Structure prediction request, 817 residues.
Amino acid sequence: MAAGVAAWLPFARAAAIGWMPVANCPMPLAPTEKNKRQDELIILNVSGRRFQTWRTTLERYPDTLLGSTEKEFFFNEDTKEYFFDRDPEVFRCILNFYRTGKLHYPRYECISAYDEELAFYGILPEIIGDCCYEEYKDRKRENAERLMDDNDSENNQEGSMPSLSFRQTMWRAFENPHTSTLALVFYYVTGFFIAVSVITNVVETVPCGTVPGNKELPCGERYAVAFFCLDTACVMIFTVEYLLRLFAAPSRYRFIRSVMSIIDVVAIMPYYIGLVMTNNEDVSGAFVTLRVFRVFRIFKFSRHSQGLRILGYTLKSCASELGFLLFSLTMAIIIFATVMFYAEKGSSASKFTSIPASFWYTIVTMTTLGYGDMVPKTIAGKIFGSICSLSGVLVIALPVPVIVSNFSRIYHQNQRADKRRAQKKARLARIRVAKTGSSNAYLHSKRNGLLNEALELTGSTEEEQHMTKGTSLIESQHHHLLHCLEKTTGLSYLVDDPLLSVRTSTIKNHEFIDEQLFEQNCMESSMQNYPSSRSPSLSSHHGLSTSCCSRRNKKTTHLPNSSVPATRLRSMQELSTIHIQCSEQPSLTTSRSSLNMKSDDGLRPNCKAAQITTAIISIPTPPALTPEGESRPTPGSPTNIPTTTTANIVKVSAL
Amino acid sequence: LVFYFFFQECPSGVVNEETFKEIYSQFFPQGDSTTYAHFLFNAFDTDHNGSVSFEDFVMGLSILLRGTVQEKLNWAFNLYDINKDGYITKEEMLDIMKAIYDMMGKCTYPVLKEDAPRQHVETFFQKMDKNKDGVVTIDEFIESCQKDENIMRSMQLFENVI
Prediction:
């Protein structure tokens, strides 16, 4: 529990007085501070640097090394201090965790060293506070990636997911060529054909040789058949590839809309359109234009290059900056073109025939190209021309760094998007864990209590020590509060009991001292209740009562004589309880053997009874039973047995 | 100590209902403690201005921790009496009871029946309502509580909380 919340615990406990008049059962006793020693200073010697803190500070987190008794292993008798041969720098952070409840991650520390220290002290990294958690996770991921890259060369592509469908394997092969050799082959083949196709397009237009008739023919027309075959082959490959991708795509609709597939389509369409329209002379002009689109095949290379993709994405995301650049350039061009036109208007044979004609000069000058096909001749024109070229340099140089920084930002952003998603998931998981943590702690301690008593009976002391983990005072107070609430309402929290392997209720009073006194009181109060409720309990079925005390009364000797329809489930549970208990801890029943024998004699015809009575008896606190069981005088006659058993039941079920 | 943590948690010097609800939801994570926190807040907020000042808080706590049994019973009566008219009706008690049962949550054994709060209220009224007029006055309440040993004993329970 957080330290801040724990400060409110006294208030909540005080307010619990509000439940008292309403409760039907007496309350469990409050945990006292008997076990707590006078708070003492502990000296922790970490590699020579001494840290001092209060013992209670360390005991705030009993499931860590420093908070539990495990640290006794490091206790040095001579110097009366705990010596740890670890890094003192990191220990500073860890000790601060105990003090403030927040674990911080120092940036200068190496992530793996820090992790090791945390593991040594038994602290989960998830507890790192929000302030440092992102940094921690980032560093951890970087480290993991680096390790992964190192390991990649050793073991990759070893069948990791054999269970993918054929379609999924194909898609994976397309997206990531390194997954299998077949994918790699496919990757290179398509790359080769893209290159071939592009080169074909280029070479087609190169003039190669003359033909009788002194006209230079481009190679495309000279070797028309050869080029046509090459083109056909490439287009076929591309078509097959496109269709395969379409088939393997997990979401066909999304695939069709993606940029790469559009490029693919645009690259191969001209060929088919050309096939269709060869005979039609009217549109052959348009057909020629279409061939231009064949150059788009070169964009298919972007699948093969991550950098190209990022560049394209950068340009897309820098659209606003580019737009601004364009706009400002346009403004400048118009201004300077106008100025130049009017400046050169006077001179004769000037090339600056109109303002749009001056645009060409302005652009060429601003981008410092300077073709020289248009030059100003008047002095005013030259002056403005030089101003134009100087300003051009400035205007163009400004947005370029913006684009560059955008590029690097996007590049890193690409890597961070995945990081963020994973962090979000982990954060939600942490919150869930923290929420269930406190309630789990309560159930955990209850279970411990259950096991404690079970083990106490069997007398196995070493396991007992194992079980009694020191719960802090705050925890025990919190649990006492929850216990009071249970008593007020007569319900109890369900706990999954591994030892008994059945869900049992936990109306028990453990961990607290003076149980006997308490049970005496409880017993007395229930004995008072008993005469009044006797008849209904004997004749009633298993029913629910809001009073925890009288609850067990209802499950009495009525059970053996009836066919127990309604109670079957409950009694079965208890039967299984007792069975398991019997098998695992035979000595558990020895303390009740006296009772067993009594009930056996009386209810011989129905041997279930014995088990049922013991079942009922076994659930509440055993330790109280032992003195009472023995002290009870054994009635000899069978007729008394029912009374005895019911009386026993009453007595025991007081809890 | 109380002063210190009060001001740490509530730097403005007043506690509002939200804080109560938060605190209770941390201590009773399995159930829904907002209703009970609301009633509790009203019990602490003696001047009914929607926020609990440090004075109110300390006053309430001192009654609960160091007051006589009479004062504690008074305080409990004040808590149950939702409209503060001096009488606890069955409806008020039912609201309080439901709020307490809500705090337990769903995972209980035995499973909470629908009329369990109502039955509990009936038991309570049987015990407390001496003249059977359907309401419990402060005197009936104190008298009946003083007769009940359990209640008396449990009042002493949280003496040494702070």
Summary: The longest strand of chain A covers residues 41-46. Residues 153-160, 459-470, 497-655 of chain A have pLDDT under 50 and may be disordered. Chain A has 29 helices and eight strands.
